[in-house]
Design brief:
mainly alpha, 34 helices, 65% helix
Length: 657
């Protein structure tokens, strides 16, 4: 009986302790242990750095279990730890150790990170096994898209799997995205299959996808590696007129090639173009520029490249210590340097600008105080990345003003461009005006791209008057503007005015443009004609078409398509038919959708003879009409895409590709 009472007492005490634990456990996880989101971010970063260093040590299994039992361990920490893993084996050992942590469950982010590491390491078998497990729902409802699969297989250099996924993508979606073509192009280019790269690019434009800046980066890099530097420059110089942003990667590839050829005049020209485009040089570019410095060529560009050509001694390395990463900063990708195989590792601190920007969204005094205490090393690139990830213009502006007072940092044309674009996009005209006034007072010359960005983004925020003010009064802040760039600026303003419904202002500005000797390009005319045709203003459309002819420009197939569709929508099928005949007589071919629309419109308006003529057109020529005509209003013409394709295909054909 006494034993039963003791047993009952023990069971009661055990139940009491378990109950207290169950009551206290939710409180432990419910109570936020950090006073600010910035503090939370910093502690997470510290844990990620500790895991990164442990994975690079000789005995990671010794301290890894302790780190993985840390209360801050979650999918965010694991995702970035996996992305930072030095090898596939270390990533797999981390996941195996995580299997022993009962409270952790994989998410879409952690599994995608693991798949990326396996793919980049060429571990195709493990990658496919992981994909099969995900599809079998072993990790719950984790999604894998066609693009995920294509990116992973491409990283693993598995071209057959990439093509197989693309075929599935085509069956599932009528229009695969541009990036799917980019992936295949890039992989074929790496494999040296020139003819296959050209075929994929042709399929992209033939199937109605518009090449983007990455498409042209792949193309330029491919041409440079094939020894076709002249053709690469031809395409590079055409990009602004196709409204395609020229990227740092494109500049880097071309500059490196010209330096290797000792063609320093071309390098100087590209450096000037970088300033016009507002492209911030990378640290990696400094290695290529050292040769120019030895030749005594770079003088005026020294200041321009000061931050990237000289190491910033404020940024230190962290050693093999768990608690040494809170006040450090990682600018770009991490670089690992093994100074001693046993107990010494140098590693840049982990940093995620997006996560840090998200932590700062409230911009409270406590968050700011925590940020100051972190003692980050503020560089131009770091500040630009933070600004890019702010969703609130108010928070971005507060940060912009705050960081200007931090030791060792001064705003430059790149940080100004980043903040002014964000403010213009959100319609914060008063802040843009304040910033422009400050720029004018200090005598700063901003890149041409900054002025154009402001005008473009004022179109999104519907601020026509502000855009006109910048064009008329502030555009000289970028210095002398070439005739070709002025044409692009006029085109941006005309597009913004149409977005804001300022029809008469747009036509007046067009007249001013022509009177000043600036001829609009096909894209500008097509954008204006598309806009007024959608309004049913056929008279203005015809006037614009006449102006195009008087300017010496010839309509391309895409412009004809825009006009025919506009006339059909306005129930003026007779006019659309005349254009169709004009198009045919010019030796141009419409796409099948435009032809079908014209036939249907003619039938609706009782013009059966014309409808039959259109129906039978091109039959005698045995011409297969394309599914889509390449081009886009305001941005790129059919002629531009055809020219780029011909340059690319012809030079590779002559190369024996």
């Amino acid at each position: 009986m006494l034993m039963n009472k003791r047993a009952l007492s023990c069971n009661f005490n055990l139940l009491k302790r378990l109950t207290q634990q169950l009551i206290l456990q939710p409180r432990f996880y419910a109570r936020d242990p950090f006073p600010t989101k910035v503090s939370h971010y910093l502690h997470r970063a510290k844990l990620i750095d500790s895991i990164r260093l442990t994975l690079r040590s000789n005995n990671p299994n010794t301290s890894l279990p302790t780190l993985l039992n840390h209360r801050l361990l979650d999918s965010f920490v694991v995702t970035h730890s996996l992305r930072s893993a030095p090898s596939a084996d270390s990533a797999l050992s981390l996941t195996q150790a995580l299997d022993k942590i009962p409270r952790f469950s994989h998410t879409q982010f952690t599994l995608h990170a693991l798949a990326t590491v396996l793919a980049k390491s060429g571990r195709t078998a493990e990658l496919k096994s992981l994909i099969d497990d995900i599809r079998a729902k072993k990790f719950g409802n984790v999604k894998i898209t066609f693009m995920n699969l294509m990116q992973w297989y491409a990283a693993a250099k598995d071209i057959d799997s990439v093509i197989g996924v693309l075929d599935e993508y085509r069956l599932d979606s009528k229009h695969p995205c541009t990036e799917s073509y980019n992936i295949v192009m890039s992989l074929y280019a790496q494999m040296g299959k020139d003819s296959e790269v050209v075929k994929v690019f042709h399929s992209m434009i033939d199937e109605g996808s518009l090449p983007n800046c990455r498409s042209y980066t792949i193309m330029i890099e491919h041409l440079v590696k094939s020894g076709k530097l002249f053709e690469a420059m031809e395409i590079f110089n055409a990009l602004p007129f196709m409204r395609v942003k020229r990227t740092l990667k494109q500049y880097s590839v071309l500059i490196e090639s010209f330096i290797a050829s000792k063609r320093f005049e071309e390098v100087k020209m590209l450096l000037n173009e970088m300033q016009v485009d507002g492209v911030l040089p990378s640290g990696a570019m400094s290695l290529s520029l050292q040769q120019m410095k030895k030749e005594g060529f770079i003088r005026e560009s020294d200041e321009f490249f000061r931050e990237t050509t000289l190491p910033d001694e404020r940024i230190k390395n962290i050693r093999y210590a768990i608690d040494s990463s809170d006040d450090e900063e990682e600018d770009e990708d991490e670089n690992v340097s093994h100074c001693d195989r046993v107990d010494r590792i140098q590693l840049k601190p982990w940093l995620d600008p997006r996560a840090l920007a998200n932590a700062l969204q409230s911009w409270s005094p406590d968050e700011v105080a925590e940020l100051e205490g972190a003692k980050f090393v503020w560089t131009t690139r770091f500040v630009c990345k933070i600004l890019r990830n702010f969703s609130s213009p108010e928070t971005a502006w507060n940060f912009f003003c705050w960081v200007a007072n931090q030791p060792g940092f001064t705003h430059d044309i790149y940080t100004v461009q980043r903040i002014v674009a964000l403010l213009a996009r959100h319609g914060r005209t008063e802040l843009v005006d304040r910033l422009i006034s400050k720029i004018r007072t200090e005598g700063m010359r901003v890149p041409f791209s900054t002025i154009r960005l402001i005008i473009d983004f004022y179109g999104i925020s519907k601020n026509a008057d502000a855009a006109l003010k910048v064009f008329n009064h502030d555009r000289m802040l970028c210095g002398p503007i070439s005739k070709s760039n002025l044409m692009l600026l006029y085109s941006s303003l005309l597009r913004t005015l149409t977005k804001c419904g300022r029809n008469s202002d747009a036509l007046d500005m067009l007249d001013e443009m022509i009177l000043n000797g600036i001829c609009p390009d096909i894209q500008t005319f097509s954008g204006l004609m598309h806009y007024f045709s959608q309004l049913g203003d056929i008279k203005t459309v015809q006037k614009l078409f006449a102006m195009l002819r008087q300017s010496g420009l010839e309509p391309d197939p895409y412009l004809y398509k825009v006009l025919i569709q506009g006339y059909c929508k306005s129930k003026r099928a007779a006019l659309a038919w005349r254009l169709f005949e004009d198009m045919k007589n010019s030796g141009l071919v419409p796409d099948s959708a435009t032809k079908e629309l014209l036939v249907k419109s003619l039938w609706k308006e009782g013009r059966r003879r014309e409808a039959a003529a259109v129906e039978e057109s091109y039959d005698d020529l045995n011409v297969v009409l394309p599914l889509e005509l390449p081009g886009h209003v305001w941005t790129v013409s059919s002629a531009d895409l055809t020219r780029v394709y011909n340059i690319y295909s012809n030079c590779l054909a002559s190369n024996g590709g």
